[in-house]
Every structure is written in C-alpha cells, then in structure tokens.
UniProtKB/TrEMBL annotation:
A Pfam family that the UniProt record links to this protein: Ring_hydroxyl_A
Domain Rieske: 47-152
PROSITE patterns named in the record: RIESKE
Transmembrane stretches, start-end: none
CDD domains noted in UniProt: RHO_alpha_C_GbcA-like, Rieske_RO_Alpha_N
Database matches in InterPro entries: Rieske_2Fe-2S (IPR017941), Rieske_2Fe-2S_sf (IPR036922), Ring_hydroxy_dOase_asu_C_dom (IPR015879), Rng_hydr_dOase-A (IPR001663)
Entry protein name: SRPBCC family protein
Domain of life the protein comes from: Bacteria
Cofactor(s) annotated in UniProt: Fe cation
Keywords: 2Fe-2S, Iron, Iron-sulfur, Metal-binding, Oxidoreductase
Length: 417
C-alpha cells in the first residue's frame, strides 16, 4: 500500500504560484494560510482602521480586532488619535470589550487598573513598595492619520515607505475636508469568503454588469482602452472620454491633482490614487448622478467633481465626491469570513432630513456591497470544490494580478526570515 503524498508546504505553494493566475485552493481555504496572512500581511503592513470622524471628541474610542490582536484607537486630551494594544499590563485581561464608546480614563474591568487616554498608568491598587507605574503604561501601536483617515501598523518596525505615500496622496484627499466631517452611516457586512477574494473582487470591474445601480453613475471601464473596450461599452466609453476632458479642465482650474499614481505591487505600502469623472450629472454616487448632500464637504464652487478613488494594500478602498466620502475597510475574521465595514462621511454641519436623505446617500453602495458579497461567496464555494484549479486573469484584471503579486511578495519576505 502506497503512503499518502506529503502535504505541500506553504513555502512551496508560494514559490510555485504562476503569474497571471488565481491562487491555489489552500491560499483561500486553509487555517494555516489564514494565520500566515495575519502575521505576514496584516500584522506587518499599514492597514486602514477608521475615519477620524469616528472619534470626534477626546475620550472617544473604537476597538479594532485583527486575528488575535485587539487595538484601542482613542482621541486623547490633545485631540490626537492614539493606538494601544487592548491588553492590561497587570495580568493581560482584555480592557475594553465594546466596539466603540467614550471614556474619561481607560479602566480594566478585572482589577481596575486605570490608564489615561495617553496610555499612562494612573492607578493600580495595592502594589508592592517600589512599584513604578511609569513602567506599566499601555503598549502603543503605530498610528498615522492622512487627511482625516486613520491607519495603524502592528509591527515593531512598520514599513518605512508610508511617509512618502502619505506625502503623495494627501494633496489629493485633503481638499475634501474629512477632518471636518461626520459619520452619516456605517454598515458592517460579513462576507462568506476569504478576505483575498473580497479584495480581488474590488480590484476589477470585469463583473460590473452585476452592479446595475452602480453602473448608472459610474463608468465601469476599469483597464479598458480605446482598443479593447467591448462593443456593449462603446457608448459608455465615448461619454467617458468627453466627460474626462471636461473634468480635467475643472480640476486644473481648481488646482485639484488628478493624475493617476499606480504603485500597487512594487512597494510595501502599495497604493493607487486617481481623480476621474462620474456619469450622468457627474456629481455623486446617486441614481441620477446629482449630489446626495446639499452641504458639500468643502467650499467647492461646483459639485461636478466626479470621484477621487484611492486603493491601499492590503485592506482598503475609498471614494471621495464633492458632497460625501465613502470608506471601505476589510478585516479577515476566518478563512471563510470577512468583515467589510462601509462608512459614509458628510460635512459635520449637514443635517439628515434637511441636507440629505440617508437612503439616497447610501443606496448605491449598500446595494453594490450586497451584490459583491454574493459574488465572492460563490467564488469561495467554487474554490472549495476538489475540481477547482487556478484560472487565468483577463487583461482587464491587471489590478487583481497586482494585488496577488503584492501579497505573494509579502509572504515570501516573511517566510525567508
């Protein structure tokens, strides 16, 4: 009787990954790869965590869970955003169990060790003589904000290129005034699929015929050109070319940067940013393309600014219009479950029911998210079949290849250590 073939190691699977094809099944299905993804990717990259608008006042906090890590994001008394491991320095108890709230001090519910919102230990009852509170502050986590967006990194030494990325993208995002925005709505959706399928799905529009609401106002032309645009999309492409020329004139007159910067797979903090027109009225993500919010995010002289799109590896994408912004954060929960958190931001003084209707504001992306959840669940189900073999990416899926190449590069670097 022949012995069973030995299981292929993660390192072997990473090394033999064919360029231009989807990953082999274990990358999406295995517990081992899920743990590797947390340690090699999420714990060593800058990840999007929240908008500053989620922490409007000193003492406001949210907790972010990434695999075994729990992080407290809190606005301190100087109104800076701080990040700490959600672990008491006494005997390791989880300190804050709620997803969000507001505190005067951070108090562990076990033995009531008390920390300031700057992480310093303020009170620890019944300690031995010589106990030094300064040695037992909360362990900090690297945190950075870019124009109202909060990013964190769990690594002891985070990727050093983030400063450069921030310097290059902040001029694009800052005009949208997110530091003076508020949260209009936040929806958490659990997709029944591996997190990489969620990201792959976002990085292409090959499937965008499945988004009828989005296609009303959004040009579904990802990576299509004059030469390869299909006949069904030719009228859309011609509208886009005209709208793009008009938009570029507007951007230049307002001093808004719009050129595409695409460095998705050749650096530790892979990113893409671009400003481009929207269809119809060209103002927002609505059924008629008109602004969903009367009070614009900033003092723009026109609402017809299309969209600013920003992608960041490994877990985020963003859309900024003149009237509102939408952030998307992806957090792995299990090999077959992924949290997608969508947050709609509007001007801090915009009033629901007066300046905007919440259903109108959220309809297109809420519908699109539900459709994407169904698509990636189908993908995960299919990959779970023994009949699955990796298939080739379409030329219009080049950003999927960029994402997977970036991901494989991160795994190789981790495994080689």
């Amino acid at each position: 009787m022949n012995a069973p073939a030995p299981a292929t190691s993660a390192a072997d699977l990473v090394a033999r990954r064919p360029v231009g094809h989807s990953l082999e099944a274990p990358f999406y299905l295995s517990d081992d790869f899920f743990g590797l993804d947390i340690e090699a990717v999420f714990a060593r990259s800058w990840i999007f965590a929240a908008a500053e608008a989620e922490l409007p006042e000193p003492g406001d906090y949210i907790t972010v869970t990434v695999g075994p890590y729990s992080v407290i994001l809190v606005r301190d008394d100087d109104e800076e955003v701080r990040a700490f491991h959600n672990v008491c320095r006494h005997r390791g108890a989880r300190i804050l169990n709620q997803e969000r709230g507001s505190v005067g001090n951070i108090v562990c519910g076990y033995h009531h060790w008390t920390y300031g919102v700057d992480g310093t230990l303020l009170h620890a009852e019944s300690q031995a003589p010589g106990f030094d509170p300064s040695c037992f502050g909360l362990k900090s986590v690297h945190v950075r904000t870019i124009a109202g967006l909060v990013f964190l990194c769990l690594a002891a030494q985070p990727p050093s290129d983030f400063d450069e990325v921030a310097d290059r993208v902040e001029p694009y995002i800052a005009p949208h005034n997110l530091r003076h925005a508020k949260v209009a709505k936040q929806i958490d959706l659990v997709e029944h699929a591996n997190w990489k399928l969620t990201m792959e799905n976002n990085r292409e529009c090959y499937h965008c015929a499945g988004h009828p609401e989005l296609q009303r106002c959004y040009f579904p032309l990802y990576n299509f050109t004059e030469k390869n645009v299909p006949p069904a999309l030719r009228p859309t492409y011609e509208r886009f070319v005209k709208a793009e020329a008009e938009a570029h004139e507007t951007y230049e007159s307002l001093g808004l940067p719009y050129a595409t910067i695409e460095e998705l797979d050749n650096r530790p903090t892979g990113f893409r940013i671009q400003r481009e027109p929207l269809d119809l009225a060209g103002e927002s993500f609505t059924a008629d393309g008109k602004a969903a919010v009367k009070r614009l995010l900033a003092d723009f002289p026109t609402a017809r600014l299309g969209r600013l799109g920003f992608h960041l590896q490994p877990n985020a994408w963003f859309h900024f219009a003149a009237d509102h912004a939408v952030t998307f954060a992806v957090i792995p929960l299990a090999p077959d479950r992924t949290l997608v958190r969508t947050t709609w931001l509007v001007h801090a003084e915009a009033v629901e029911g007066v300046d905007y209707d919440l259903d109108t504001l959220t309809h297109i992306w809420a519908a699109t998210n539900e459709q994407d959840a169904a698509f990636v669940a189908r993908a995960h189900q299919g990959i779970s079949s023994p009949a699955y073999v990796p298939g080739p990416y379409s030329p219009t899926e080049s950003q999927v290849e960029d994402f997977i190449n970036w991901y494989i590069t991160r795994l190789k670097a981790y495994l080689e250590r």
